[in-house]
C-alpha cells in the first residue's frame, strides 16, 4: 500500500533536487607504512592506525536527473597510532593519537528506476585530508618523543551506495567509500630528527544515515 501511495515520479531523484544526509560514519584504515627512522637509522618498526566512528554529514545537488555532486563532511575522526610490534620502546603498544578531517567531493551516477524505492549509485571524486592535534602518549613523551606532525593528504575517492525512499522527502542511505590517504610523519627524539616517510592509510568508510530531500 505504501509503495502504491508513492508516485513513480517521487521515487526517483530529479534535476535540481537538494539532499542532506546525517548518520554514523566509520573510518576503517587498510594501512601500511615504512619503518620509523631516527637520525637516519631504521628502527625496524612500522605503524598501524585503528578504526574510529563519528557523525557523518553530506550534502548533494542533482545537476541532472541521475547525477549529483556530493560533499562529504564529518565531525573530526580521532585514531590511535600503534607500533606494528608489541611494545618496542617499553612504553606500551600505542605510540600516539592523531585527529583528521577528510572532506571529499564526489560525482555520483544513479541507476534510476522511477518505479523502485531503491536508488543505487556509484561515484568517484577527490579527497583532501587535514591532520591536526597529533600527540604522543604521555609514556612516549617521557622518554623524549615530541613534535609529532603528519602532512595533509590529497587523493582519489570512490564509492557505492543506495538510497531507500520512505516517502517523497525522507529516505535511508547506506554507502561504502574508498579514500586514498597517503601521508608522512615527522617528530624528534631528544633533539634527534625522526620520520616515517610513507604512511598509506587508504581507509574504507562505512556510512549509515537518514536523508531528506528539499
From TrEMBL:
Per the record, its GO cellular-component terms are: outer membrane
Which example biological process does GO assign this protein?
transmembrane transport
Q: Which Pfam families match?
A: OmpW
- Coiled-coil regions listed: none
Name this polypeptide is given:
Outer membrane protein OmpW
Q: Which organism is it from?
A: Planctobacterium marinum
Amino acid at each position: 500500500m505504501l509503495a502504491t501511495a508513492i508516485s513513480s515520479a517521487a521515487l526517483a531523484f530529479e534535476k535540481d533536487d537538494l539532499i542532506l544526509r546525517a548518520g554514523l560514519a566509520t573510518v576503517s584504515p587498510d594501512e601500511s607504512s615504512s619503518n620509523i627512522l631516527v637520525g637516519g637509522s631504521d628502527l625496524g618498526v612500522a605503524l598501524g592506525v585503528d578504526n574510529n566512528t563519528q557523525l557523518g554529514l553530506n550534502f548533494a545537488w542533482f545537476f541532472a536527473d541521475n547525477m549529483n555532486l556530493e560533499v562529504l563532511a564529518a565531525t573530526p575522526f580521532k585514531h590511535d597510532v600503534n607500533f606494528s610490534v608489541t611494545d618496542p620502546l617499553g612504553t606500551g603498544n600505542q605510540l600516539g593519537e592523531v585527529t583528521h578531517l577528510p572532506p571529499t567531493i564526489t560525482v555520483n551516477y544513479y541507476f534510476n528506476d522511477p518505479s523502485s524505492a531503491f536508488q543505487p549509485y556509484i561515484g568517484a571524486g577527490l579527497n583532501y585530508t587535514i591532520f591536526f592535534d597529533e600527540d604522543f602518549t604521555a609514556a612516549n613523551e617521557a622518554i623524549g618523543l615530541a613534535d609529532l606532525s603528519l602532512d595533509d593528504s590529497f587523493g582519489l575517492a570512490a564509492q557505492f551506495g543506495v538510497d531507500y525512499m520512505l516517502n517523497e522527502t525522507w529516505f535511508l542511505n547506506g554507502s561504502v567509500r574508498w579514500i586514498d590517504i597517503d601521508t608522512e610523519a615527522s617528530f624528534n627524539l631528544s633533539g634527534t630528527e625522526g620520520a616515517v616517510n610513507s604512511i598509506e592509510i587508504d581507509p574504507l568508510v562505512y556510512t549509515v544515515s537518514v536523508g531528506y530531500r528539499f
